[in-house]
Amino acid sequence: MEDREKVFKQLIIENHDKIYRICSYHSGSRDDCNDLYQQVLINIWQALRTFRGDSKISTWIYRIALNTAIDHTRAESRHLQNRRKFEIENVSYYQNQSEDRWQKIQEEKMLETLKSEIIQLSIIDKLIMSLVMEDVSSKEIADIVGISEGNVRVKVHRIKENLKLTIGGQHNA
Amino acid sequence: MPEQNINMNNHTETNDIANLIDKLRIMDDKNLRELRRWQIILGIMAIFYIIICIIRPDTIVLVDTTGLLVFFVMYTVYFFKLSRKDYSIPVKQVLLNTKKAYRFVNPVFIISAIVAAPMIFGSIHTLFSRYFNVPDWNIEPLYFELSVFGIFFASVLIVAYVVWHARYHKVMMEINQNLKELEE
Predict the structure, then answer these.
(1) What is the ipTM of this complex?
(2) What DSSP character marks residue A78?
(3) Domain residue spans in chain B?
(4) What CATH number has the domain spanning A2-172?
(5) Looking at beta carbons, which residues of chain A come within 8 Å of B86?
(6) How close does chain B come to A173, measured CA to CA in Å?
(7) What is the pTM of this model?
(8) For the CA atoms of chain A, what is the radius of gyration?
(9) B133-142 per-position pLDDT tens digit
(10) What residues does each domain of chain A span?
(11) Which end of chain B has fewer CB atoms surrounding its CB within 10 Å, N or C?
(12) pLDDT digits over A119-146, tens only?
């Protein structure tokens, strides 16, 4: 029991940013994100009993986070409405910044646009892209999701192409 | 699954983690108590069922208790199979396991509904014969109380079946869609 608590504490200290970022892709608002984050921590705690160290700790954490996110999305009926609210909140934040940081803000805004587009993808595409955004390798994504590495590459390529078209279309409009 | 109100934000502090661990420990205790409660309920049901089978093998009581037992087993299977799944395995495997769990539980609900339908019919038949005092229908006084219970219990089973059926289709559709996307 003591060991479990120690390991859990260490895991959270080392990975809470990573877990929180993953949660943010799969939730529509900050509250929703906190709920999902909390559920991921509960599931990590429960899964620690059976952790054998067969896979990398990051793979193990991502699996728990994403599986919890899928369940959360399934259960969350207000997800779609909140998603829009979350986007609007982010945009107004940028409008309040000073002009000398304009360039940086533009880049960040681009990243936010990308994030908000990712949030609107289907659950499977979203979970793959949230891992890509975390710089997880194709091999590890394949391990986490349970499909072949080749399949991951094809999917990532296809999703990126679609995102380029969507974001490009938005900028031209 | 019982959930605690855990206040965590992006910047997790050591104190927050200590509080969280305390709450998780309480949650573990609560889960253990819940498991024990279900074991006791199932144990009592099983003993009750065996006694009924021995003393009244030819009555409606047997149908009622069979239904009751099926309901409790079904609920327990549902509870443990679905709420305690392993999240640390690959996403695709979790989807397949969830699909399997839902498919496993589904026939139990169908059996419950099948048990419920004649139970309602039998209970109404008994109540009517009692109320209108039909001479040809041989009714024991005990059946009257049992019939009221039978109607109530069978209604619960049917409502449970309808709710389950809607959920089953929704979840299966989503899982199939996710699996299809993964395999594309």
Answers:
(1) 0.77
(2) T
(3) 1-55, 57-183
(4) 1.10.1740.10
(5) 47, 50
(6) 30
(7) 0.73
(8) 17
(9) 666 555 565 5
(10) 2-172
(11) C
(12) 888 888 988 999 998 899 999 999 999 9
